[in-house]
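Entry 12.
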Amino acid sequence: MRNHAEESSYNIVELKISGMDTGLILNGALGNNIRSGSIQNCGVGMNATRMAWDNKLWGIDFENNDLDFRDASRRLCFYGCDINTKGTFENGSTGARVFGGRIENLTISSGAANVLFSGMGYNRTGNGKIVDVGTGTRYRDVLNIAESKWYDSQS
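Predicted 3D structure (tokens):
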């Protein structure tokens, strides 16, 4: 979006990222709308740091990344994204929301707070899982795809 070390805020972006150590870094980024595209073949697909606020990803296809996303930001939103491997909400992640889409594995670390999952599916392959040690995580209409079972709220 901008050069290294420059803030980038309030953009509407379509992207296609492939073959990088970290595909997308949101640091000092505020209110961006990242709409459609893919992040693939990266070490970390997306890294949202504590310095990022209110960014939204719409219909992004995460494929063949070692880690699809790492979030430590405030109020990150995923809308209808296909997260192929694994995502993690880490210490500092606050108020993240995931609406729709699918994910294989999901980790909510102990320092993550008030994450909401709604209308999404996980565990497509039968090897996926949700590990949640966060605070105030909520689940609404979350389907374990391989087992055809609904995942109930833990808080």
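Annotation: The chain has no helices and 18 strands. The chain has a mean pLDDT of 93.
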